[in-house]
Amino acid sequence: MYILGIGGMGYKDSAAAILSDGRPIAAVAEERFSGIKHQGGFPHRSIQFCLERAGIPLRDVAGVVVANNPWLPMRDRVLEWYGEGFLKSRTARVYNVFKDDTHRLIEYLQSLEQIRAQGIDLLEASHDRCHAAIAFFGSPYDEAAILSLDGRGEVSTSSIGAGRGLELSIDALSRMPDSLGLLYTLVADYLGYSDLDDEFRLIAISPSGTPTYVPKMRNVVSLAGDGTVKLNEQYFGYHQNRVYLSEAFIDEFGESRDPDLPLEDRHRDLAASLHQVVIEVVLKMTARAREKSGSKNLCLGGGLVQNWGIVAAIERSGIFDSVYVPPAPGDDGTALGAALFGYHIERARPRIGPILRSDLGPAFPEEDIARELERLKLHASKPADLATAAAERITSGELVGWFQGAAEFGPRALGHRSIVADPTDPATRARLVASVKARTEFHPFGLSVTEEAAIDLFETMPNSPFLERTGKLREDAAKRLPAVQALGGETRVHTVCAERDPLFHALLVAVGKKTGVAAVLNTSLNEPGRPTATTPREAIGSLYTTGLDALAMGPFLLAK
Questions:
Q1: Are 526 and 543 within 8 A, CB to CB?
Q2: What domains are there in the chain, each with its CATH number?
């Protein structure tokens, strides 16, 4: 049985995923095909990829489940207003001329109608339940508390619930505009970081500040007695469907920062204060989740779970014995959550097991890579031992692209579409920032390390296969890894298993033979401003438009 999930937010992070008898076989975000970060709209190419990976036409899927769906209820409203024939009418075609939200809505609805017209069972699942589904059904637990921390779905923002067997329940559901994710975004704008994903800069700079504004920030955001998040309305304004920080916020915290001016201490202190207060709210939600569920296990979902500081704080609290974070906790991951919801909840099919891999995206065989190299008239070597050859370059100070197997689903580069470098060289990080990732002044690079080496490097072994956690390096290990940036003493870490990812593991082992540490700095393989590379052509583009020195792609090693 095949179940297709469609996820994202309509206007961003559109994605698709497919299950075969309950097991994920393909999942990809539409941005990987369009080249536009956080691509929204209907995920035509993602759906096509999933069907091709499954080897079936659309008519052979048992059902399609759509996440975050104001679209399906809107269909009923549109047909109520305009009649059954509206979506096929000349009026609908005229609407499509205009490239605005109305156009996107009509195009999305028409695409769903084409699915429905084939007699396929078309279902919807709410945004928060799709986050809960990927978190719980992707976990190894038979029962667990579920905490979803998000910006927003349809109107939901965060939820506290539980999973047991094939059931999901919600205890507390926060709704717009009461949103921790929205608060992070607004304060990021206030501090001069207005680009996509810039709220993560607040997390990165917060350890450099002092939380002097904590008492004031506690007046901005709190947790109500029913377990829902509450933002103090006096600090926010609303205009033309936009939320902004009010004059009361400016009076309390000072004028906003000009992006062209350097950070001041008060900006760092505000970031530190916001982070501390959000952690306080999240830990109260975590304690409520434990109390209500009675479980010792916790599953985390939602875009805010990509905030490594939040995950670390939850684990350090000891409220739960075990915590699971899926490979794609954000909005694109709702595609996989929708498929899991349809399979387990709607069809009551038994669980298969935890999601242990994220390599669910496009892959390219050797002949495709060779054809692209030939087309571009590029000469690449074909080493007998690729891992050793790449390790020699890495340990000689080079920045190497690593393009292997299927692309990762989710926001992290996990050794399939990565840039890797030597963490034992103190000059490595500066070179990465200067020539590859110029906007990462405060954003720490991940440390990919073999599971065996992690035991010796970290005070407590961090089980972090999806780069979802931080760990504290032992004092001697920190000295051996000068290029690793600590965040309040914690390091972002990706633990690599030999069984699940033998080639990347072999690379780390080969690096370790030369440096004494089986680890590399790891960041995503992409050109500036674009999503992580998906195809060989995009990987080659990353090589020649950034400061990369070489690219290991399939069995080939291409050097500038």
A1: no
A2: 2-127+335-346 (3.30.420.40), 141-325 (3.30.420.40), 366-559 (3.90.870.20)
